[in-house]
Request: fold
Amino acid sequence: MTESYQVTIVRYGTRETVRSDVYLNHHLYAEPDGPIGMDYFFWVLRNSSRTIVVDTGFSAVGGARRRRTTLIEPVDAFDALGIDRSAGPPVVITHAHYDHIGNVGLFPSSPLTIAAAEYEFWTGPYADRTLVHHSVEDAEILGLRQAHSDGRLRMFADSAEVAPGVRVTRVGGHTPGQSVVTVNTTDGVVLLASDSVHYYEELERSMPFTQVADVIAMYAAFERIRGQLDSGEVRHLVTGHDPDTLSRFTPVTDGALAGLAATIGEES
Ligand SMILES: [Zn+2]
Reply:
């Protein structure tokens, strides 16, 4: 039998940038450049019997190196959500960029699910090239290697069930193993696009992001996600970085996460 979850979206960081910094070859769209915000999120899935963490945000070091603004320390957000980190809740890694794996170390006994293509890329011969390397922290990739040698890494090729009602699927594009997560909720299926779709506009107008390993795979991921939304297979799309994300869902109004989180569905 499948299960339903409540999804909590946590906005832990932010920055201001410009459109030409986020949309690949922005000049091709014949529109002026202009400011655009970028928010940073991770996601938690919960029901009465399980907690699953999807990505972990940037570390203090990784965020500071890139001058990102931290709105709440991820560790404080995990605590505010009452997550028992020592219990080893499963952690899904959508890709290995610094803003997604920076706090994996807070979950030292958790199984980590990651696409094999992602792990292989960042432990392979091209991981140190300038155009890709600036998005990762070597110490954090080392952490993944350590988790692998500890037997905590669960690698998959195309798709894997994390738990009943939670599936992770590799789409590639942004990184070789970029993955999305689909979650059953009491309010329909939620797709956590992570960085396969940074912005709603990115999907609506098929505008690839500047950081891309395979631009055609990125276009194909847009098509796939659009198809899932159009067919009703997916009801809610949660993007990886759009400042408009929280406003689309039920706001969290009290506690340490007031104004910094939103939920989809009820805990059941
Ligand atoms: Zn990201």
Remarks:
- The mean pLDDT is 97.
- The chain has one domain: 6-264.
